[in-house]
Write a structure and sequence with these properties.
With about 190 residues, the protein is an all-alpha fold. It has a domain at about 90-145. The protein contains 5 helices and no strands. The chain has helices at about 1-35, 55-75, 90-110, 120-160, 170. The longest helix is centred in the last third of the chain and has 42 residues, at about 120-160. The mean pLDDT is about 80.
Length: about 190
Amino acid sequence: MEILCFGLFLLVLPVLGFVAVIGFLVAIHRTVKLVSPEHRQLSPGFVWCLLIPGVGFFLAVWMVWAVSESLRRQFEALGEPRNGGFHGLVSGMIWSCGQLTLICALSLAPFVSISSLKPLVAQIIIIAIMFAIVAPIIGWPIYWQEITEFKTMLEKHVASGRLDSLSQEEQDYGDDIGERKPESDDRSGTEG
């Protein structure tokens, strides 16, 4: 019975992890989509590139910077600079750099024998691995929460009419939020 429960746990854990990652990427996608196109440093669809095996870890570092810069520019344009201009940059970098460090450490681990290294180098490697394990665990939920808060703030600005977050292309292809209003045809005058 215990083996069966443990086996189910091992099957369910990756599924729950994948669902959490998708929820996280949806939150970032929706947040970036609410930023006016002229302030975006990346397209909303770019966040899905993080699912590319091997490359996604490297792209996450750039994505965190681009999302932070997009949010900074948007809130400055709205006259509401926030968080000292960081907009999730610190927690996002802790998460993304931590996971990148972990992947690099795990990739190099088979080639390095700690016992053959000098004590200082071995200690540095062990500290880096500890950081790499702890940083993503701490940074990820904090970054997700911050992104969700920024999304909520931007949604309030869209609802109040202070922010039009869709480009003409997004409106043309039906990516708009809510009902589309028909354009008025102003041909009521005389043609000459």
